[in-house]
Write a structure and sequence with these properties.
The complex is a heterotrimer of chains A (116), B (524) and C (112). Chain A has one domain: Helix Hairpins (Orthogonal Bundle), CATH 1.10.287. Helices cover 62% and strands 0% of the residues of chain A. Chain A has three helices and no strands. Chain B has a domain of 210 residues. In chain B, helix 4 packs antiparallel against helix 5, helix 10 crosses helix 13 and helix 13 packs antiparallel against helix 17. The longest helix of chain B has 40 residues. Chain B is globular, with a radius of gyration of 22 Å. Helices cover 55% and strands 4% of the residues of chain C. The longest helix of chain C has 21 residues. The two termini of chain C are 45 Å apart. The chains are: A mainly alpha (116), B mainly alpha (524), C mainly alpha (112). Chains A and C meet through helix 1 of A and helix 5 of C.
């Protein structure tokens, strides 16, 4: 049961994130929701990589008896996704800032000149 | 640095050249501003040439599997890895090169056009850098064999596309469109990553061929499939995931929209790749096939009916892009619905699939041409609203001719390329289900009707006094349109050669999942 | 033969089609040639006849895009009244459509 806790947290975070994205009409809060969604996916990836009593794949730590070490794939994926997430988040915030300059609002209900 | 080594490294150069060119463009713009346009066009020519060379290689020798970071001849699976490919693989087969060719043609035509149409704008170096990044993203998406790598290229694609969309602020409208596009695509992208995590948890590999060879049918795998379909359909702009697509297409600079069509088709590539090559023969595909068909029919019909009342010319074209995506889904979905029945596949399934795939490249060409021609009109008049246009055919004869070619092609009028692919889709879907074929034809008629309106209200009629000073656009913009128009006509005149050379290998690559797995795991 | 696309149910050859079009254009040109040539440019003959009224200014006779297909959209009004509000322009709605779509797909695949 305790091993499944991270996945419960992932499910909760995804729920919170989608609730924020769907219910908050303030663009900044919506983007915060996207940030939480991204955090949830990152947590999911890292949680997948956990192996009971695994050995980190660092050369100097390599076990003398030749037993296997854990592949660090998901950690690499998470790092990459964090970087991508920063870029996405920054670009979105810049867009919101520029829209605010032009429209004078960050409300999604009023940010709808493109429609129909 | 001999020729053999260069030839063997083409898949790596495919990504390296546009990335290298992209990051050097601001440097070039800073120190040699006069040489910048030449530099960008040169980079685009070289990367397109690499894509075409790869295509020639694949058609001559078969699928290329390129292992990043391995000495040549070492094979895809390292000896001590326990039968898992650990390095990142590029797996370029018939379907991949088919998409590469369409991206190569369109990106080159787009950059020729943009170097002129952007000449009055500021911070052009960054603009071209983003354009080349978008090209790199598309090239990467259609050639990688690694799911996470695919996700990274997808994100490069979305980020570059939305940044380019926001370039002409246009009173904040462009930024609004870009913001919506980015939010929707980020949600879609994160769902794709979640699905990749689900698959990795089960099979400990990110390689599509490895996953395909071990896949079993569990609820979690189906959940992953659905998340992948939804995320990639968002990228491709399929109803009901299409809402941000017209918003972004209609406000992006026209040359960029041309490339964004191909960028969204790279999402379509991912969709078909996942369904056929990864999930392939694992389950009775009728349910998924019908899902794809219904998504296609919805896209076709809602896209075209939303296009008819539009007043903004680019928004109208954008809804037609949604509508045309439906034809591709319809063709390929028909083949998917009868995937497990070899007799039916041979009677009409293969034809449906070839029609759907043929429509991908046709759409990239003629919709690109239409966007470029409309962009030329906006470049000279500065007007988006159809109600204010008229009589421009007197002043912009070449633009009018190119627009007419695009119009006839998209409406499926012979002898242009749209007719050939639509004919293949109609006849094969009629054998599958006549009602669907009838809907497809009705949509085609509505498309023609809607383009009659555009052509009449923009180019026909007497010369209007407010457009007395309008002139033809510069030659290089016309050259960009001419390249696309030549291919539209050529593909229309020799449809059999196009189908045999370009489309049949792509259809084979999708229909034979075992080949896909064998290329990576077998013999290697 | 070059250009022949066999679709499994029919055949399509754009080159033959082009020859056909060229032949029919030539035929129509021949028929047109047989006609009597009484057209004279720059005379009253070329002016449009509007029941004797003066011809309006050029800009006023162009049929603008907004006037085309009015009947089509008016006839399909119930359909459009439902469809157009869906494209509301609010991002939250777009994301909820994404979720609705994904959930429907999932239910269909699990049941199917």
């Amino acid at each position: 049961m305790i091993a499944n806790l991270p996945f419960v947290a992932v499910a909760l975070l995804i729920g919170i994130a989608f609730a924020m994205i769907l219910l908050k009409y303030n663009m900044i809060k919506m983007i915060m929701g996207l940030g939480i969604l991204e955090g949830a996916v990152n947590l999911f990836l890292v949680a997948l990589g956990y192996r009971e009593s695994g050995i980190a794949p660092i050369f100097t730590n390599s076990p003398a008896n030749g037993s296997a070490m854990v592949m660090p794939t998901v950690q690499a994926l998470t790092l990459t996704n964090i970087v991508i997430g920063v870029a996405t988040m920054a670009l979105m915030l810049v867009f919101v800032m520029l829209v605010y300059k032009k429209y004078g609002t960050v409300d999604a209900n009023e940010m709808r000149r493109l429609r129909e | 640095m001999n020729v053999d080594f260069l030839t063997a490294s083409l898949p790596a150069l495919l990504i390296t050249v546009p990335l290298f060119g992209a990051f050097l463009t601001p440097v070039c713009g800073r120190f040699l501003p006069n040489a910048r346009d030449a530099w960008v066009i040169l980079t685009s020519i070289v990367s397109s040439a690499i894509a075409v060379l790869l295509a020639v290689q694949v058609y001559a020798k078969g699928t290329i599997v390129y292992v990043f970071g391995a000495a040549p001849g070492l094979g895809t699976i390292p000896a001590d890895s326990g039968g898992m490919p650990i390095r990142i693989l590029f797996h370029i087969d018939g379907f991949g090169v088919f998409m590469l060719i369409s991206a190569a043609i369109v990106s080159f035509a787009g950059i020729l056009y943009l170097t002129v149409s952007q000449s009055r704008r500021s911070s052009r170096s960054e603009f071209y850098a983003l354009y080349l990044l978008l090209v790199a993203g598309i090239f990467g998406m259609v050639s990688t064999d690694d799911l996470f790598n695919f996700f990274v290229f997808l994100e490069i694609n979305s980020l570059a596309a939305s940044a380019l969309t926001a370039y002409h602020r246009n009173g904040g409208l462009a930024i609004e469109g870009a913001l919506k596009y980015l939010i929707i695509n980020t949600v879609g992208g994160l769902m794709i990553l979640f699905a990749i995590g689900l698959l990795y948890a089960k099979y400990n590999s990110l390689n599509m061929a490895v996953i395909a060879s071990q896949l079993s049918l569990t609820t979690l795998n189906l959940l992953a499939l659905i998340l992948l379909i939804a995320g990639l359909a968002t990228k491709a702009g399929v109803v009901p995931f299409h809402f941000a697509t017209p918003d972004a297409y209609s406000v992006a600079p026209s040359g960029v929209t041309t490339l964004m069509i191909v960028a969204s088709q790279a999402g379509l590539y991912g969709l078909f790749r996942i369904i056929f090559s990864v999930y392939g023969s694992m389950f009775t595909p009728a349910a998924v096939g019908w899902i794809v068909i219904i998504l296609g029919v919805l896209s076709m019909f809602i896209g075209v009916t939303m296009a008819i009342p539009q007043k903004d010319i680019k928004r109208l074209l954008s809804y037609h892009a949604v509508s045309q995506t439906g034809y591709m889904l319809l063709g390929v979905g028909t083949a998917l619905a009868i995937f497990d029945d070899t007799t039916l596949i041979n009677t009409f399934g293969r034809m449906a699939m070839e029609g759907g795939l043929f429509h991908i490249i046709n759409h990239a060409l003629y919709k690109g041409l239409l966007f470029l021609a409309v962009g030329a009109v906006i470049y000279r008049t500065g007007v988006w609203n159809l109600n204010q246009m008229g009589g421009l055919g007197h002043k912009m004869k070449w633009t009018m001719i190119f627009f007419l070619i695009g119009t006839l092609a998209i409406a499926g009028i012979p002898p242009f390329n749209g007719f050939a692919s639509k004919l293949m889709i109609y006849e094969s879907t009629f054998a599958f289900n006549p009602a669907i074929a009838v809907i497809a034809m009705v949509v085609s008629i509505l498309t023609l009707a809607s383009f009659m309106k555009v052509f009449h209200s923009v180019f026909m009629g007497p010369e209007l006094p407010e457009y007395a000073n309008v002139r033809e656009v510069p030659k290089r913009m016309l050259a960009g349109m001419a390249i696309l128009a030549v291919f539209v006509i050529a593909f229309g005149f020799v449809p059999d050669l196009t189908v045999n050379i370009l489309i049949a290998p792509a259809a084979d690559a999708l229909l034979h999942q075992e080949q896909y797995i064998l290329c990576v795991l077998g013999g290697g | 033969m070059i250009g022949t696309l066999t679709t499994g149910f029919g055949v399509w050859n754009p080159l033959i089609w082009l020859c056909g079009i060229a032949a029919s254009l030539f035929l129509s040109w021949l028929i047109w040639q047989c006609g009597e040539s009484d057209y004279e440019g720059d005379t009253e003959q070329t002016a449009p006849y509007l029941s004797g009224n003066a011809e309006p200014e050029k800009g006023a006779v162009h049929i603008r895009a907004g006037n085309m297909y009015w009947g089509f959209t008016a006839a399909l009004k119930p359909y459009y009244e439902r469809l157009i509000p869906l494209h509301s322009g609010i991002v939250n709605d777009y994301v909820s459509w994404f979720l609705i779509g994904a959930v429907i797909l999932f239910v269909v695949v699990i049941l199917g």
